[in-house]
Each structure stands twice: as C-alpha cells, then as structure tokens.
Amino acid sequence: MNPNEINLLPLLSYFVECHEGDLLSFTNWLDKAVYMFHYLPTDAFSETERQNVCHVLMELKEAVLKIHLEQTNCA
C-alpha cells in the first residue's frame, strides 16, 4: 500500500457489521452522540474541546450523508 493511501476497509466493515450497511443508522447514532456530549459534566472537557469534538462528529456525519446521497442517486 502506498503510504499516502488510506485504507478505509475497517470503517466499511464497521458499517456493514454494526449498522447492516445502513449509513443513515450510523448518522442517527452520531446525532445521539453529539446530543449526549452536551450533557457531560462541564469539568470533563473544556468548552473548546467540546466544540471541537462535536464539530468532528458533525463533519463525519455530513461525509457519510454525502456518500449515502451519491449512492442512492446513482442507483
């Protein structure tokens, strides 16, 4: 494998094994994670850390939704 290539097979396997290939199921869990993250004790993370984690989760959700839309539009 080229060092610049990223192997996403483990991530794809996760979608298949844990969400039966349903990307929307995964995005629902991401929504729940962001929601629950706001209810952690305020001393667990700084406000910046909390915002950064939520941002990363939302970016991941948007990427998965984009993949889902591209797949369903091509089908």
Structural features:
mainly alpha; 3 helices; 72% helix; globular
Explain what the structure shows.
- Helix 2 (23-37) runs antiparallel to helix 3.
- The chain is an all-alpha fold and 75 residues long.
- The mean pLDDT is 83.
- The protein has helices at 9-19, 23-37, 47-74.
Give me the strand/helix succession: HHH
Helical amount: over 70%
**Low-pLDDT residue spans:** none
Q: From the alpha carbons, calculate the radius of gyration and give it in angstroms.
A: 15 Å
| Structural classification | mainly alpha
What's the total helix number? 3
Query: Could you report the average pLDDT, rounded to the nearest whole number?
Result: 83
Q: What profile does the largest beta sheet have?
A: none
* Percent range for β-strand residues: under 5%
Number of β-strand runs: 0
Shape: globular
**Amino-to-carboxy terminus distance:** 30 Å
